[in-house]
Every structure is written in C-alpha cells, then in structure tokens.
Predict the structure.
Amino acid sequence: RLTQAAVLVPLVERPEGFTILLTQRTAHLHDHAGQISFPGGRVDPCDTDPEACALREAAEEVGLDAAVVDLVGRLDRYVTGTGFEVVPVVGFVRPPFEIRPDPFEVADVFEVPLSFVLDPANHRREKHVRRGEERHFYVLPYENRYIWGATAGMLVNLAEVLRAP
C-alpha cells in the first residue's frame, strides 16, 4: 500500500527568467534525509486534495504563503522506491515573497534556473544496485548539488511537458 503525498513544483518568475524553488532536507529526517526535494509531504486527513496538501506543506516547510502561488496543474504521479505515490502540483510563485524554512525539516532553500532543467544535456541517467536489484534514476547535477531520484524524475517530467508541442 502506497503512502499518498503531494509536492509543490514552485516556478518563480525572476527578472533573469523562471527558476524552480527547491529544498535540501535535513540529515536527521527518517525519509529522504539530506536529499534535494520540492516542498511537500504526506497527505493529511485535513487535505481536501493534492493541491491543498502541496500548499500546506510548502507553508509548513518553507513559509511560502499560498496567496502568492497560482496553481496551474499537475505533473505525472510519481511512485518512489520508498513507498510513496506523489502528486506533483505546479504553481507560479509571484515575488516578492518571504521564505522561512522550518529548521527541523529544511537545511537549505535555493533556486535552479528553469533553463537548466529544460536542457536535456543536464538529464543524466544513472543506476544503482541495491539488494541485487538494479534501479535506474535521473540525476541533474547543478553547481555543488546532486538532484536525483524522485525530484530529478519530476523535473524531467516537467521539462517534457513544457517542451511538448
């Protein structure tokens, strides 16, 4: 049985072009410790839909006010190897906005240019063998960051959607 989750894919309009807001999770967390991720998490009973979950989690994790987010759609559902079924919810974020990371969950908040994500040359495929099973996943190495796994897979899906005719 998969745990239902949602993430916000925040597209920020900057003078130099759109960026994508990402977080680095703290090293002590039980799930996906230290990894680069979108703001998001498990669907709670109070969440009416994945959009409500994504906005609530973004507010809790990075202090992003839902009033500055215009939701525009969803990407493909993503099933993780750790048992989560994630709905990526895309939203345009209107500056100015304040970021207030939750120090328990978020070690860092940063932005990656959308142009970097859209370039297929930045989408590497890697593999890892775990318990005799070979797993393939995307990696988008950006500056000193290693964006991989579910987040990288969702970014590749975003690039595919935005490049589609």
